[in-house]
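Run log, item B.
One chain of 459 residues. Sequence copied directly from the ordering sheet:
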Amino acid sequence: MKCENCTKTECSKKQKNDDKQNASVDALRLNNENEEKSEFHKLASAKIFLSDCLACDSCVTAEEGVRIFQQNQKELFRILNLNKKCDTSKHKVLAVSVCPQSLPYFAAKFNLNVNDAAKKLCGFLKSLGVHYVFDTTIAADFSILESQKEFVRRYQQRNQEEHALPMFASACPGWIRYAERVLTNPVTPHICTAKSPQQIMGSLVKGYFARQQNLSPDKIFHIIVAPCYDKKLEALWEDFYTPLYNSQDVDCVLTSGEIVQIMEQKNISMKEVSEVAVDSLFGEIKEEEVVRHDGRRSDGYLEHIFKHAAKELFDMDVQEITYKVLKNKDFQEVTLEKDGETVLRFAAAYGFRNIQNVVLKLKRGKFLYHFVEVLACPGGCLNGKGQAQTEDGKADKVLLSQMEEVYAAIPVRLPETSIHVQKLYQDWLEGLDSKKVQETLHTKYCAVNQTASSMDIKW
């Protein structure tokens, strides 16, 4: 059976279009119903679905399936219980980092403003025994700034480097897995090398923060609260592991919905939870208010890179960006004109239907875009399957609409204006263009070898 998303000849999942938000368990059943189910199929039965084409065992190995399955609420409580025992050698400092796109979910879910939602969430997590609760916006600052610099460099070297342009965003793990395991060499050289906000946050917590607290990285158990399940897969990647300390940068990912499940299991009402200010990575300083980046449903890579490139390359100040909707609302473009000529052409492509259209144009040599913000989830990060879903697995459109309103009302802060970020570049990373910046904030994406029989890419 051919999968319309990943184009493999043999695939355990058949999905008709991006509008279908979950694969059915029937599509994942084994050929022999009496055969013992694999860990991945148990994962699927537990309603943990990776985005779109990733929900097939051709893209998720058996080992990955087991390790993804282990990232659940039980891991949090395992550490909490270890910390209650007398053997202090096994105690861990529990740090939880919350993605900006998760906070609107808690705000809409509990009818709170986003700042109160952040404080309530922090209060709840600390009532369980969590030591620190961080906001990952600062990690997104770094990711965006490094992406901006890389795009300008690629644009300036576009005539010397074959794969300099287009540049594809690298923040979405669903898209990255699809590119590495399915699209392979024609696409992977075009992916921006900047790490995602999640993994930069991992470096900040296990690197900078651990040093500030005089802790070994393996003494910190780092949890990310994220909108989608794909982040669980990202946390496992080899490049985000430190062999010296036998430590992953991110130890566990829980979705926003899984946090709410913990509240429900403990029968805790948000009204009963105390408001506690969110921690920062800088000692006793607390986060005053929630801020976000430009972008309607995500971290806004397109907007920030577009404005930065317009200034750096063409000395043009762009204040407002006008999107042009193309085939559908999840495929839009932005252009910059100078002296009657289009000098920059960017696109946002959300969902695998649009991603495939983009890659088709690239393979045919008819690609007009300099940069594409690629996200696996239709509707972007706010619509992640770990939070914007009803109990039957469908998109909760009412809740999503409320989340979009909350997110749009959050004040925007430019990453360039963050004093903490500039200080970290100097004190932690040894300068803006140091070797440590490349080692800490960047990674590499490359094709994963596939056997010829497992591939059938025909665009």
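Observations after the first pass:
- Residues 114 and 346 are 31 Å apart (CA to CA).
- The longest helix spans residues 137-156.
Flagged for discussion on Thursday.
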